[in-house]
Write a structure and sequence with these properties.
The complex is a heterodimer of chains A (216) and B (378). Chain A is 40% helix and 19% strand. Chain A has one domain (2-211): 3-Layer(aba) Sandwich (Rossmann fold). In chain A, strands 1, 2, 3, 4, 5, 6 and 7 form a seven-stranded mixed β-sheet that branches. Chain A is α/β, with parallel strands linked by helices and 216 residues long. With 378 residues, chain B is an alpha/beta fold. Chain B has one domain (2-377): TIM Barrel (Alpha-Beta Barrel), CATH 3.20.20.30. Chain B contains 13 helices and twelve strands. In chain B, the strands form two sheets. In chain B, strands 1, 2, 3, 4, 5, 8, 9, 10, 11 and 12 form a ten-stranded parallel β-sheet that branches. In chain B, strands 6-7 form a two-stranded antiparallel ribbon. The longest helix of chain B has 26 residues, at 313-338. Chain B starts with a strand and ends with a helix. Classes of the chains: A alpha/beta (216), B alpha/beta (378).
């Protein structure tokens, strides 16, 4: 079965180093998944293209355009996520966060996420650990141990390739394992929270359960 | 079918002049709007309830009684009554009293309220919103249906030997709607009791309205109140009319662009596409409104939001003239034409509930439970 990974990038220019890093990560993940004899496909979400949809969504109390609705569905349906943001003022960019804010609180439950960031200077490297990692932990994603930070100057160094390969191997492993229904001999975890895009109505409780303890 | 208007009761400066009405002026204008609704042949006026600025509508029964005294046949309702932060004991008293004053021309719509600080101001916690709505409403049903109530719940002081006064008019509690934009629990609640379900409709994509109404209809049938298409549904709508679409848009756009809730967000055109908002000619409003039944099914009550976003009262009154005299008569006839015979045209009213007699399910606290017990014994 083919796994699907969404590559979420929040670069603002074309071409952008953020998208470039996303492409390199995707290539490395493809290699790592193929090495396991499995197949993977990538879907790209450029947050810039959704900027107006996101502004409308956040200022209208949650009215989503058809395009934003489709992307919310796409992200929650993926087997894994590569999230790449440029660093703005010591954190992820505002536009990147707007996208994450437009996801359902249960949109990324248990999803393997490779976090990555670009910046003009290596002094921002800890953005991955003080901003990106807690953000995705909050959303109950499984944030992989290796994050990839790339300062502009590093696009000319071999150290970046090593980190990309290591992170890609972690994501490939997580996606292939998580994609299997469950480990042979073990039932799926019944306590796991269902992942949902939030586009459709959540299943309702039976009224007897709602009224229990409240009927006087 | 009933047609009417619902008001949020906001004080918003007119964006074209910067002038905001005083609280007194806004209250007076809401009264004029309600009286105009009856004058132009609308059936329902519903007032919001809020306990924080920029709203004025903190005392719905006071206002509805004042309007009732000056009208003959207008049905008075709420949009919504805060079942979370109000004491259900006081709701039972206030609205039974209002029933007596108005000769039964009232019903209520239960809502939770989404302003966080209002909950602690009234000693509650917004995180308990659903539970409060469930428990308080169940108590309210008992207070209107049992002569002496003994009660112990999670949220209010226990009641021992309590009798709510006055008892409902003709021993018949008012009809109740439950309003919710996105909580399936509330659609479930409305279905369980066989009450009406109202979807505000105007603040969210219409696909969500469709899903919520479908859930309510399925569960209404599940609990044995009738077929899914016989469930009692109300929808909101939002319109602004002119002689041409371009003229309507020109006049309404500054109000839309600066409106509370969605102003400075999506464009008028985007919002029109995603939600039921219709800015155009009366014919366009008729066509769009008739389309609601295509995804919500044939329904019983249509309320329009007309007085908001700082629109001057004179403009609102003109809009009501067009709505009442040109739009609603056509809607009435067309909705009648498409509605199958077994689907009720109107929601229950005081007279229809009285006519159904004291043994009708409406008089039971839990009609679905009684039905299930009966079924088990048979």
């Amino acid at each position: 079965m083919t796994r699907t990974i969404v590559v979420l990038t929040a670069g603002l220019t074309v071409p952008s180093s953020t998208r470039l890093l996303g492409d390199q990560l995707a290539d490395a993940v493809a290699t790592a998944v193929s090495a396991r004899g499995e197949a993977v496909s990538f879907e790209y979400v450029e947050v810039r293209e959704l900027a107006q949809d996101l502004a409308g969504y956040l200022t209208s109390g949650g009215i989503a355009t058809p395009r934003l609705t489709a992307v919310r569905e796409q992200v929650s349906a993926a087997d894994g996520l590569i999230a790449v943001t440029p660093v703005f003022s010591a954190s992820y960019s505002g536009l990147f966060k707007m996208f994450v804010d437009a996801l359902d609180a249960d949109a990324l439950n248990g999803m393997p996420v490779l976090i990555a960031a670009t910046a003009g200077s290596a002094r921002h490297a800890l953005v991955l650990d003080h901003a990106m990692r807690p953000l995705f932990s909050h959303l109950r994603a499984v944030v992989l141990p290796t994050g990839v930070f790339a300062a502009t100057e590093e696009f000319g160094s071999s150290g970046l390739d090593d980190r990309i390969a290591r992170a890609a191997a972690e994501l490939a492993n997580a996606v292939v394992v998580a994609g299997a229904d469950h480990v042979a001999g073990f039932a799926p975890d019944p306590t796991a929270r269902r992942r949902t895009s939030g586009n459709d109505l959540a299943p309702g409780a039976d009224f007897a359960d709602l009224l229990r303890g409240h009927s006087g | 079918m009933q047609f009417g208007i619902f008001s949020v009761g906001d004080i918003t400066p007119d964006p074209t002049t910067g002038v905001a009405p005083t609280e007194g002026e806004r209250i007076e204008s809401m009264t004029r709007i309600a009286l105009k609704a009856e004058e132009v042949g609308l059936d329902v006026f519903a007032t919001g309830e809020h306990h924080n600025p920029p709203f004025t509508v903190s005392s719905p029964t006071t206002h509805l009684a004042w309007i009732a005294a000056q009208t003959e046949r207008l049905q008075l309702s709420t949009s919504t009554t805060l079942i979370t932060t109000n004491d259900p004991v006081k709701i039972a008293e206030d609205y039974a009293f209002l029933q007596h004053l108005t000769g039964g021309r009232i019903d209520l719509m239960m809502g939770r309220g989404n302003t966080g600080p209002v909950y602690p101001w009234f000693g509650k916690d917004i995180r308990d919103g659903i539970k409060l709505a469930i428990e308080n409403y169940h108590l309210l049903r008992k207070l209107w249906r049992e002569p002496v109530v003994n009660w112990q719940g999670q949220f209010r002081t226990p009641l021992q030997g309590y009798t709510s006064t006055p008892a409902p008019l003709d021993g018949t509690p008012p009809f109740v709607w439950h309003g919710s934009i996105r909580s399936p629990e509330i659609a479930e609640q409305a279905a369980y009791y066989g009450d009406g379900f109202f979807h505000n409709h105007i603040f969210w994509n219409k696909e969500h309205t469709e899903q919520m109404v479908r859930l309510y209809r399925q569960r209404f049938e599940h609990y044995g109140h009738g077929a899914a298409d016989q469930a009692i549904v109300g929808l909101g709508g939002q319109v602004f009319m002119g002689t041409t679409e371009a003229e309507a848009k020109r006049q309404f756009r500054p109000y839309f662009d600066n409106a509370p809730v969605y102003g400075h967000g999506p464009s008028l055109e985007e919002f029109t596409q995603a939600t039921p908002l219709t800015v155009g000619t009366p014919e366009q409003v008729i066509e769009r409104t008739l389309g609601f039944a295509d995804y919500a099914g044939d329904y019983q009550r249509q309320l329009f939001l007309m007085d908001h976003a700082g629109l001057p009262v004179e403009v609102v009154l003109e809009q009501l003239e067009i709505l009442g005299r040109e739009v609603v008569p056509v809607l009435r006839a067309e909705f009648d034409r498409r509605r199958p015979a077994h689907v009720p045209s109107d929601p229950p009213t005081h007279s229809s509930l009285v006519a159904a007699g004291p043994d009708a399910p409406h008089h039971l606290v839990e009609p679905a439970k009684a039905r299930a017990t009966e079924g088990a014994q048979a």
